[in-house]
């Protein structure tokens, strides 16, 4: 991937872009992601790309419940029904 920016102008101008993916001749997702990430780093005031944190650098969270606010419920109170069928595309037109 290659991206050339002209930072002398405000706002920054994209002079050239190319990517080796099949959509690389146009604006592909890889280039959009790179531009978005670059803009995010500038907004956050980073001078360099921050190092990624490994999972061992963070506190473990396996003991913490992930479903806060879901309470047990009696099965007699549950309503089980068949999901509604979606309309076919041909029926919409």
Report what the structure shows.
By secondary structure, the chain is of the alpha+beta class. The chain has a domain at 2-44. It is 22% helix and 12% strand. It contains two helices and two strands. The chain has helices at 29-44, 89-92; strands spanning 2-6, 13-18. Strands 1-2 form a two-stranded antiparallel ribbon. The chain is flat. It starts with a strand and ends with a helix. The relative contact order is 0.08. The model has no long low-confidence stretch (mean pLDDT 76). Keywords: Metal-binding, Zinc, Zinc-finger. GO terms for molecular function: zinc ion binding. This is SWIM-type domain-containing protein. InterPro entries: Znf_SWIM. Residues 1-39 form the SWIM-type domain.
Write down the secondary-structure element order: EEHH
Distance between the termini: 42 Å
Number-wise, the strands total 2
Structural class: alpha+beta
Low-confidence stretches: none
Main pleated sheet: 2 strands, antiparallel
Average of pLDDT = 76
In short:
The protein has a domain at 2-44.
Features:
93 residues, alpha+beta, single chain, 22% helix
Secondary structure: elements and pairs:
Layout: E1 2-6, E2 13-18, H1 29-44, H2 89-92
Antiparallel strand pairs: 1-2
């Amino acid at each position: 991937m290659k991206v050339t920016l002209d930072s002398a102008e405000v706002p920054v101008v994209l002079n050239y872009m190319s990517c080796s993916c099949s959509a690389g001749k146009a604006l592909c997702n890889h280039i959009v992601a790179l531009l978005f990430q670059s803009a995010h780093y500038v907004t956050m005031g980073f001078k360099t790309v921050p190092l990624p944190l490994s999972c061992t650098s963070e506190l473990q969270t396996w003991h913490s419940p992930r479903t806060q606010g879901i309470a047990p419920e009696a099965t007699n109170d549950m309503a089980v029904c068949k999901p509604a069928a979606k309309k076919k595309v041909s029926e919409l037109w």
